[in-house]
Structures are given as structure tokens and as C-alpha cells.
């Protein structure tokens, strides 16, 4: 499942008990959760070049990370991973890897 911790700034995962219970049931069935952005929205100023317009409005549509600097992108990724870790801690240690983003151990993100 692709999980966005705060979809469009108004569906924050920590406040969505029903959705979290759905995710719990999917994890219990063996599904894996994967971090898929933090807001899933491009809130940066409008694109200024044809290439940026294409990349942000056609190719990715909601390319959250495209206009961000590396530092800004890493901040959001870290925040998303923190939500997964916090969620894991609330659930207990019985499914340690299931509630962490898919492939987190394969990512190289300076924390």
C-alpha cells in the first residue's frame, strides 16, 4: 500500500483511526506499506519554464518532490519515516518491519 502521511494537508495519518485500522488489517494479511510522499501535493510557486511546467503539471501532476531542494525533500522524507516509526511504536513490536516503509533499509537517507 502506498501511504501518504498527510494527504493534501488535510488527511493526517495519525488522526485517521479508521484508515489506520484498515492498514493494520492489510499488514496482518501480509501486505507491505510504502511511503509515497508526505503531502502528495505540489504547493510550490508556479512553474516558470516549459520543462518545469511539463514535469509538474503533465508528467507528475502532483510531483511533490520535483520543485524541492534536496534538503527540503530529505526533511519531508524524514518526517514521513518518523510517522511510520511512531505508528510502529504505538502498535508494539509484534510486526516490526511491516509498518515501516517498504525498502527503508535499502534507502540511504542521512538522518
Describe this structure in words.
The chain is mainly alpha-helical and 111 residues long. The chain has 3 helices and 4 strands. Strands 1-4 form a two-stranded parallel ribbon. Strands 2-3 form a two-stranded antiparallel sheet. A hairpin with a 3-residue loop joins strand 2 and strand 3 (11-12). The protein is elongated. The model is unreliable at 93-111 (pLDDT under 50).
How many strands in all? 4
Mean pLDDT: 79
- Number of helical segments with 4 or more residues: 3
Structural class: mainly alpha
Distance between the termini: 24 Å
| Radius of gyration of CA atoms, rounded to a whole number | 15 Å
The topology string of helices and strands comes to EEEHEHH
Estimate the helix proportion, in percent: 25-40%
The shape is elongated
Record the strand order, biggest sheet: 1-4
Largest sheet: 2 strands, parallel
Poorly predicted runs of 5 or more residues: 93-111
Feature tags:
two-stranded parallel sheet, 40% helix, single chain, 111 residues, two-stranded antiparallel sheet, 4 strands, mainly alpha, disordered C terminus
Describe the structure in brief.
40% of the residues lie in helices and 7% in strands.
Describe the SSE topology:
Elements: E1 2-3, E2 6-7, E3 11-12, H1 17-28, E4 34-35, H2 50-59, H3 70-91
Parallel strand pairs: 1-4
Antiparallel strand pairs: 2-3
Amino acid at each position: 500500500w502506498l501511504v501518504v502521511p498527510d494527504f493534501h494537508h488535510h488527511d493526517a495519518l495519525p488522526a485517521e483511526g479508521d484508515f489506520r485500522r484498515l492498514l493494520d488489517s492489510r499488514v496482518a494479511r501480509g501486505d507491505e506499506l510504502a511511503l509515497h510522499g508526505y503531502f502528495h501535493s505540489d504547493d510550490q510557486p508556479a512553474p516558470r519554464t516549459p520543462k518545469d511546467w511539463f514535469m509538474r503539471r503533465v508528467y507528475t501532476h502532483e510531483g511533490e518532490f520535483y520543485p524541492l531542494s534536496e534538503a527540503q525533500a530529505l526533511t519531508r522524507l524524514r518526517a514521513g519515516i518518523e510517522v511510520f516509526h511512531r505508528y510502529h511504536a504505538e502498535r508494539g513490536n509484534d510486526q516490526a518491519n511491516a509498518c515501516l516503509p517498504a525498502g527503508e533499509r535499502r534507502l540511504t537517507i542521512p538522518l
